[in-house]
Amino acid sequence: MTYSSTVIMAVVVVAAGALIWIFGRRADRLRVERFADRPVLSVERLWKQFYRDGGVSPEVVARALKLIEDALGIPSRKLRPDDRFADELAPENGWEFDDGLADLRWYLEGSRKGSSESVHTVDDFILAIADAEAISNRADQVMGD
To answer: Is residue 59 within 8 Å of residue 66, measured between CB atoms?
Structure first.
């Protein structure tokens, strides 16, 4: 391969990467824009409204919402328990390979939080983390005895 063909190949690879990055950012922005008109709800208020009576701590709710925000780019104050990963939180068509949902699956499965197969909504995700932490806390108590 000659020097000029190597340079051309490098320019093509860099240009393709730049285009993927630019269009990927656009896809992320479109997903976030779906929630633009949704009222902001603080984590504390969301916890009081949906989880206070269910035994889930505000820390678990805050941590779960932050994980979703980091993975999907949707502000945690715009998320609701009934938001579905396959619908409201789904990536734009064509960007499923880079949807951020894999990060959440890996978190659940890789950090002993359980299986992600039964997690379809934000509520399912929060409850999976709460259940796993409760099991972990019980195991710690047994091991400490």
So the answer is: no
- CA-based nearest residue to 45, from 1, 3, 78: 78
Q: What is the DSSP letter of 38?
A: S
Q: Which residues of 104-116 are buried (b: 16+ CB within 10 A; e: fewer)?
A: beebbeeeebeeb
Mean residue pLDDT across the chain: 77
Question: What phi, psi does 75 have (nearest 5°)?
Answer: -55, 135
> Which residues, 6 or more positions from 76, have their beta carbon under 8 angstroms from its beta carbon?
43, 62, 65, 66, 68, 69
Question: Is the pTM higher than 0.90?
Answer: no
CA nearest 74: which of 88, 60, 87?
88
